Amino acid sequence: MKKLSLFLVVVLTLSLLVVGCGGGDKQEAATEQVKVTELKMSVTTADSSTWTLGAKKFAELVQERSGGKIIIKVFPNEQLSGGNQAKGIEMLISGATDLSLHSNIIYSIIDQKYGVISLPWLLTTEAQVDEKLINGPAGDKFKAMLREKGVEGLAYGENGFRQITNSKREIKAPADMAGLKIRIPGIKMYTSLYKALGADPTAMNFSEVFTALQQKTIDGQENPTDVITSSKLYEVQKYISMWNYSYDALILGINKATFEKFDAATQDMLRKAAEEAMDYQRKLNREKGVEQVQLFKDKGMTVTTLTDEQIKVFQEKVKPVYEEYEPIIGKDVIDLFR
Q1: CB atoms within 10 A of CB 323
Q2: pLDDT tens digit string along 45-74?
Q3: pTM assigned to the model
Q4: In this structure, are residues 99 and 93 in contact, taking their beta carbons and an 8 Å threshold?
Q5: Is the separation of the CB atoms in 255 and 185 below 8 Å?
Q6: For all residues of the chain together, what is the average pLDDT?
Q7: Beta-carbon neighbour count of residue 48 at 10 Å?
Q8: DSSP state of 234
Q9: Domain positions in the chain
Q10: How far apart are CA 76 and CA 97, in angstroms?
Q11: Residue 33: its pLDDT value, please?
């Protein structure tokens, strides 16, 4: 009887241990689940754009390299800000959004100095962009400027070089710009620039541009080839001049306070994942650019590629823009890009 009692005690003890171990596993799993960090990322453009493809690449890399502990949810089409790009950046700065992929041009609505990257013919080739912005001191300086607003710049993508289209004539010289009503983003620098070239700049929400061109309310607009293609502007525009007059960078930024909550190793992982994802996005954007120019020709557009000599004439015309914006941006900052 004593042996039987001892046997039952042993069995009962083992049973409790097994139950205890099982409970421990569940507790550990619950603890592990609590440790997962979800971040919201805002992107301006549609699902199929190189912007969103780059953002999703970043999210995949972060999830993989964090062992699933950091999940980034990508929201295309400026969903989080109701379509308002400037508000999208304000939400990033305040921490309402954790991450975003926005153009430096939109940042310049918040503060004009962020328009430095897009000054006319400051950067004119992809090689210059890579040397000065992606891998150079100008890019480091710009990231330092972003920190002043509470944004940690992780890496640079690109919208690319902006080209000009219109329905009236080829643009090969400043005289060809006279009187053309050109839609521009609502930033002061572009207003000054197009007035210097003799055009009539008109700020307008991009969502209204196709209809305005179709109805001849405006004569033309300016944008990188990817935007011109995805918006099918070739259907309502006859001429395009390839002049690389203004570079449009993308900032993969994270709210600074959010970034500082992570340990050094995680911060390093986020930077490297961002750089890899934006390398992928820039490469994709540049490959598409070549295909898009051919598409314009196939659709019947007259494609005019300006020579260096022709561009020099335009550069002379926009010198007053540099005189106006050097005090705002700082000559030392501009010189880093030259």
Answers
A1: 10
A2: 888 889 999 999 999 999 999 999 999 999
A3: 0.83
A4: no
A5: no
A6: 90
A7: 10
A8: G
A9: 35-337
A10: 13
A11: 54
Q: Report the C-alpha gap between 322 and 104 in whole angstroms.
A: 18
Q: Give the distance from CA 264 to its chain's centroid.
A: 25
Closest CA to 243 of 192, 193, 295, 168: 193
Which residues make Cβ contacts (< 8 Å) with residue 178, sequence separation at least 6? 198, 199
Please report, for residues 4, 66, 73, 91, 310, the alpha-carbon distance to residue 38 in angstroms, rounded to integers and kept in the order given. 55, 12, 7, 17, 51
In which residue are the tokens 């300016």 written? 222
CA separation for the pair 245, 240 (Å, rounded): 13
Q: How far apart are CA 256 and CA 264, in angstroms?
A: 14
Inter-residue contact 165 to 237 (CB < 8 Å): yes
Q: Which amino acid would we find at residue 118?
A: S
The amino acid occupying position 292 is Q
User: What is the C-alpha separation between 122 and 245, in angstroms, rounded?
Assistant: 8
> Of all residues in the chain, what percent are helix, strand and coil, respectively (each to 5)?
60, 20, 20
Q: Quote the radius of gyration of the chain (alpha carbons, Å).
A: 26
In contact, 185 and 203? CB cutoff 8 Å: yes
**In the predicted model, what is the mean pLDDT of residues 145-163?**
97
Kind of pairing between the strands at 302-305 and 239-255: parallel
Residue-wise pLDDT for 267-288, tens only, equals 999 999 999 999 999 999 999 9
Tokens of 265: 């190793």
Q: Which residues contact 14 (CB under 8 A, 6 or more apart)?
A: none
Residue 121 CA neighbour count, 13 Å, CB half? 17
Q: Would you tell me which CATH number, out of the four given (3.30.70.1150, 3.40.1570.10, 3.40.50.2300, 3.40.190.170), belongs to the domain 35-337?
A: 3.40.190.170
pLDDT of residue 204: 86
Q: At 159, which amino acid appears?
A: N
E strands, 167-311, in order? 181-184, 200-203, 220-223, 239-255, 302-305
> Please, are residues 184 and 194 in contact by the beta-carbon 8 Å criterion?
yes
